[in-house]
Amino acid sequence: MVMNSSVTEFILFGLTQDAGKQKLIFAVFLMFYLATLLGNFLIVVTIKKSRTLGSPMYFFLFYLSFADACFSTTTAPRLIVDALSQKKTISYNECMTQVFAAHFFGCMEIFVLILMAFDRYVAICKPLRYTTIMSRQVCRVLVILSWVGSCIHSSAQLFLVLRLPFCGPNVIDHYFCDLQPLLKLACMDTYAINLLVVSNSGAICMVSFIILLISYIVILYSLRNHSAEGRRKALSTCTSHFIVVVLFFGPCIFIYTRPATTFPTDNMVAVFYTIGTPLLNPLIYTLRNVEVKNAMKKLWCS
């Protein structure tokens, strides 16, 4: 896979070089990662086994939890292992694989969040046509399109980074391989490539966030005609979704919609959307959702 590069491996700088803090990072992020896998696994199994969670909203939540678990897995294990490792190296091929996987599952999460917002829009604004518009077949097609779109996006990102020549140094000032840190190491003018990165990842983040924002404004406006109980239930569901959207898109927009400059806070911001958000999503969707909690209790009892 190595193209235009004399570098065969990279060194990941990580979050810190302090030995004491590295042990703390190992313990904390191992706990976070295991909790992320457990939380998302519980949601996936509960939705799969439960007969009461058959609506399109939970169909999309199933794929959001799957994407969360995979997205966290692309970065967290490497961070955890490197925290106790003396040799924090990653091969060129592994680095390129990580770039592809991180952008694939991150983009998948964005598309699924849009599908969930669309589902709520149809349920609240067009309730009489809901079962027709959001049929099981339509939901499957939408998820397939999300997979295809994510693959196109991540392939484009990988194509851009494969064109970069690396001739040293090879120390990545990050805890995983991503485009912005790799652009800094390339021995060529990366201005044009950075514009392509911003127009790809940055545009997806901004446009998706604007679409979601508009959809929730329309939903809130349409709720004025609903009963008090209907408004309460719809607001509870939409609030959960909107919290997830803000937590995920805020850090992504900060990272991917600016020129090729780095800030000291970039690594911690990246931790928030690659590890923090996949951990918080199961908590947000279970603690605020009575149906999911009841389904989990039934599954546990059985």
UniProtKB/TrEMBL annotation:
Domain called G-protein coupled receptors family 1 profile: residue spans: 39-285
Topological type in the membrane: Multi-pass membrane protein
Keyword Transmembrane: yes
Principal cellular location given in the protein's record: membrane
InterPro entries in the cross-refs: GPCR_Rhodpsn, GPCR_Rhodpsn_7TM, Olfact_rcpt, Olfactory_Receptors
Sorted UniProt keywords: Cell membrane, G-protein coupled receptor, Membrane, Olfaction, Receptor, Sensory transduction, Transducer, Transmembrane, Transmembrane helix
Alphabetized PROSITE patterns for the sequence: G_PROTEIN_RECEP_F1_1, G_PROTEIN_RECEP_F1_2
Residue spans crossing the bilayer: 24-45, 57-80, 100-118, 138-160, 201-223, 235-256, 268-287
GO MF term set: G protein-coupled receptor activity; olfactory receptor activity
Any one cellular-component term (Gene Ontology): plasma membrane
Subcellular location per the Swiss-Prot or TrEMBL entry: Cell membrane; Membrane
Coiled coil: none
Role according to the record: Putative odorant or sperm cell receptor.
Recorded family membership: Belongs to the G-protein coupled receptor 1 family.
Protein name: Olfactory receptor
